[in-house]
Amino acid sequence: MKLSPQLFLLDGSSYIYRAYYGIRDVATTGGMVTNAVYGFTRMLLGLMQEHNPDYLAVVFDRPREETFRRDIYPEYKAHRDAMPEDLAPQILYIKQMLQALNIPALEAPGFEADDVIATLARRYAAEGLQVTVVTGDKDLMQIVSDEICLLDTMKDTLCGPQQVFERFGVPPELVTDVLGLAGDTSDNIPGVPGIGEKTASELVQRFGSLEGVLKWTSLVNGKKRRSNLETHAEQARLSKTLATLRDDVTLEVSLADLQRQSPNLADLIPLLRKLEFEALEIAFTPPPPGVVEIYSDGSGRDSGPGGYGVILRYGEYEKELSGFEPVATSQRMELLAAIRGLEALNKPQTVRVFSDSQYLVRGMSEWLQGWIRNGRLDTPDALANQDLWRQLAALASQHQVSWEWVRGHAGHPFNERCDKLAKRAAEEGAQATATGQQPETMETEQKQPLPPTAPVKRTPLPAREEPEFDVEEDGQLRLC
Fold first, then answer.
1. What SS3 state is found at 265?
2. Is 92 helix (H, G, I), strand (E, B) or coil?
3. What DSSP element (H or E) covers 72?
4. Is 65 a catalytic site residue?
5. Active site residue: 11, 61, 187, 297, which one?
6. What are phi and psi of 362, to 5 degrees?
7. Is 146 a catalytic residue?
8. Which of 233, 293, 296, 460 has the least C-beta neighbours within 10 A?
9. Residue 449 pLDDT
């Protein structure tokens, strides 16, 4: 349960470059390179699905030649390479994607994205929101507080005040003092020659601030170090100014402008098709009216811990389920995932169940009627996992169900989400069991629970001739 509204601010430039270098060789059939657009959209989709923020914005840099830091120090970031030639045309499509997703794309003349992020983060943290800045940039550690944290989605790490202290040896409010002394090669901030980050941290800890270090230079150990501090005192002060983020940027944006909205499908779907992002189109296209989609996946090893992940979709509404079993095979977890999905329906429904398990899909769509006719479903020990097959059969009989196979680990957004949910549940369950705790079944909902629909009439499957398949040692047909 959320204790306060969640605002997520994405460092757009960081996201774009991570997408560009993280995914290669993606292009349309016409030869248009789209790797950055594809990676950016996938990462953004994953973030929204994983965290479901109440408010969201993506913040972009202006050209570095236009920022106030370049005015006071022309060498600022001057050593950085120009944007890759095949990335530049993709920026337009990334911004079109954000517009179609109804996600604000923000920037401010004369300032960098970090300044805009600092301004918004501190403004809305002061108003009671919990702010998460999505970035891998250490410069933003200076704004971290109890209400503002940094999320690095590539490393799956969260940075709060303690993590800042572990990184710099000082609290967030003194990070710029350390950078003022040590400089920052990535931004071409000079600092003081001969003083690295470790030494700078020790000096700031001892004297309380950069200004304290410069005031008490005579007490600093080392003749050369004292000389450099005296000679480059103004350069240190300039470096701190360059490293310090502004939080007073004038922005004509309100909190209401940042509230999450549904995508504009009339613009989004044609754009996805133009870019040939078929898998992403699935993620943004709601199920047909009156149909509940259930995506399920299981994770387990022979006689080891297992987890399951389930996503239910109805219109624009979603529900996630996940759970843990201390002893379970992969096949049992695949069946259990589908069971948990069907159990979540409180009224008869028209249902489409998707899974990457042929064991599940072929068992329910091709062989169940045969098992019922020849009595194998009810004959003790006639089928492996017979208890779960019987539960599935009973649940499926309450609904109009179709079973559909999807290729696993092939970029399918819901299959990959279910796989992640299942693996996380298995890991967390195993950890809880090892410490003597009771693992919990997790359930999250977006927007509202699945609404009931009118009862549907079951149509019995016609009897048909069954082809011959190999048989396992336990007598169950080999379905994979």
1. helix
2. helix
3. helix 68-72
4. no
5. 297
6. -75, -35
7. no
8. 460
9. 39
Identity at 105, one-letter amino acid code: A
User: In the block, which residue shows the tokens 């950085």?
Assistant: 80
Work out the average pLDDT over 74-102.
92
Q: How does pLDDT run across 179-238, given as a tens digit for each residue?
A: 999 999 989 999 999 999 999 999 999 999 999 999 999 998 989 999 999 999 999 999
Q: How far apart are CA 310 and CA 399, in angstroms?
A: 18
Instruction: Respond yes or no: is residue 298 known to be catalytic.
Output: yes
Amino acid at residue number 210: L
> Which one of the listed residues 409, 465, 470, 473 is annotated catalytic?
409
The catalytic position among 298, 300, 309, 363 is 298
Is residue 334 flagged as an active site residue? yes
Residue 281 tokens read as 């189109």
| Selected catalytic residue, list 187, 356, 366, 416 | 356
* Catalytic hit among 334, 341, 363, 429: 334
d(CA 425, CA 305): 10
For 286-446, CATH gives 3.30.420.10
Burial of 30 (0-12, 13-18, 19+ CB in 10 A): exposed
- Are the C-beta atoms of 296 and 308 separated by less than 8 Å? yes
CATH of span 6-243 = 3.40.50.1010
**DSSP codes joined into one string, 40-55:** HHHHHHHHHHHH--SE
Q: Kindly state the percentage of the chain with pLDDT values over 90.
A: 70
Q: Per residue in 255-282, is it b (16+ CB within 10 Å) or e — as a string?
A: eeebebeebeeeebeebbeebbbebbbb
Query: By three-state DSSP, how is residue 317 classified?
Result: strand
For the chain, what's the residue count? 480
Residue pair 239/233 in contact (Cβ under 8 Å)? The answer is: no
d(CA 325, CA 431): 12
Active site residue 139: no
DSSP annotation string for 442-461? EEEEESSPPPP-------PP
pLDDT at residue 443, as a whole number: 56
In single-letter form, the type of residue at position 280 comes to: L
Q: Which amino acid is at 69?
A: R
Q: Provide the token pair at 469.
A: 């398949």
- Please give the angle made by the CA atoms of 24, 25 and 31, to the nearest 5 degrees: 140
What pLDDT is attached to residue 433?
79
For the chain, domain boundaries: 6-243, 286-446
Report the candidate in 257, 210, 195, 209 with the shortest Cα–Cα distance to residue 56: 257
